[in-house]
Amino acid sequence: MSDENTVEFVRPTPEHVLEVLRDWHRHDPIWGILTLKGPRLHMHTTVAEWRDECELVAWRRLGDGMNEAWKVDLTPDEWKQVLEPARTRTLQGVCELIAANASVPKPQSVTILGRECRPAAAFLAIRRLLVDAGEAPESIAPSTPLSDIARRRFEVFLGGMTKMAPGRLPRMKVHYSMLERISSWNFICGVLLMAVGLRDYPLLTILGGMLVIGSFIAISYVARNVPPRGIDFGNLTTFRDLAFALSGPPIRDPSNARTATR
């Protein structure tokens, strides 16, 4: 089977979209979307609760981020209709809007010796997503280690693979670059300078504010443009392991694995 025929892109259900959002919040911060620290997301979760619990940004930037993450081109007015007023709008509207406009990868069935083989289908779909991102198909075999390709293509693992099978990847451990670590420490130092200078040292407050802004810009740039030093997935070390994980049941809360597609 050629790589072109291994994946079908289909409309997700709102429930599938919700599972993907939950999964993104389960992983380390990527794309500026931070780890969920409070209650589990539900359709009735308000946008205000979502933004507060996940430390998300104001509605306009949140809409831009969702456009990028879901590869859609929705207008600010369309996002505003489901994001504002934040205290009354819920994730139901957000998920329905995304589901009506986005597409997610779905592995094509693979039959081996007369029986469907879901891990084989998952592996071929994984390879297709990575080839589309620029990897050479001959460099990806079932025995190929995940580490190097995951480091280069982490957006595919959190993007296409999570959309294809949310809840199956173990939580990633991201080893950030030294530049991002330095920027993070500068950010903390800037906050401390602002706190110290708030009463009696206005110059320190100004310097701290400049350091915070500069560090935030640097962190955002590095997170989007500089690959991390490494990414690991716990016990998953090869693409064979990854294929079995993505074709199996969700890692946690299997009762909520409503990931059907239309």
Secondary-structure class? mainly alpha
* Count of discrete structural domains: 3
End-to-end C-alpha gap: 24 Å
Q: Give the count of helical stretches.
A: 11
Principal-axes geometry comes out as globular
Order of the strands making up the biggest sheet: 1-2
Order of helices and strands: EHHHHHEEEHHHEHHEH
Radius of gyration: 20 Å
> Unreliable stretches, pLDDT < 50, 5 or more residues?
29-38, 253-262
Let me know the average pLDDT.
Answer: 83
Query: Strand-residue fraction?
Result: 5-15%
Largest sheet: 2 strands, antiparallel
Proportion in helices: 40-55%
Number of strands: 6
Structure description:
This protein has 262 residues and is mainly alpha-helical. The chain folds into three domains: 11-101, no CATH class; 105-172 and 235-254; 178-225. It is 53% helix and 7% strand. The protein contains eleven helices and six strands. The strands form three sheets. A two-stranded antiparallel sheet has the order 1-2. A two-stranded antiparallel sheet has the order 3-4. Strand 3 and strand 4 form a beta hairpin. The longest helix is centred in the C-terminal third of the chain and has 24 residues, at 202-225. The protein is globular and about 80 Å long. The relative contact order is 0.16. The model is unreliable at 29-38 and 253-262 (pLDDT under 50).
